[in-house]
Amino acid sequence: MDARADAALPEPAAYTLETGAPSVSGPTPIGVSEGGSGVEIDTGAAKFKLAAGGTFPFAAIERAGAPVLASEKAGLWIADRSGSEHAATISSVHVEERGPLRTVVLIKGVASAGGPDPLLLTARLHFFAGLSTVRLLITLTNPRNAVHAGGFWDLGDPGSILIKNAHLVVDLPSAAQLRRRGSRAVKS
Fold it and tell me: For the chain, what are the domain ranges?
């Protein structure tokens, strides 16, 4: 169940869950466009583009019609045992769940850790109507089997993959840069 509630805090609020035809009030429902190997999500507050072969997790983000993502710096980066960094790659993007208040996009791909077998990447992005906030859940899976007796993963097991670091970079403009863009848009 998804619901949007605006309550005047600190006043107590009571909500009732009922069956029947859903009613949607509040922000404009989420717009979803699927085409080719990508998905575009319009929450009303921002537009997000996700694409197979594109930068993880976003190929582009727009707010008030202006791009806000420096995609050449963005991505999920894995530092292998030697410290070399590898960017995750996206192999597929599709809408997993559609709703007027929340939409979920599933991304699948791989993330190299410097060895012969890459880590499998699964990410779910939750988009919310009227918000530019995105909930991102990332899972990295080692596809190799443990060699240790009983199939238990032990530190140093021959089937394990050592990573020094995994970090996500989403390079957004500062508040000052957004204000400058806004003032330029007003002057034009």
Answer: 31-182
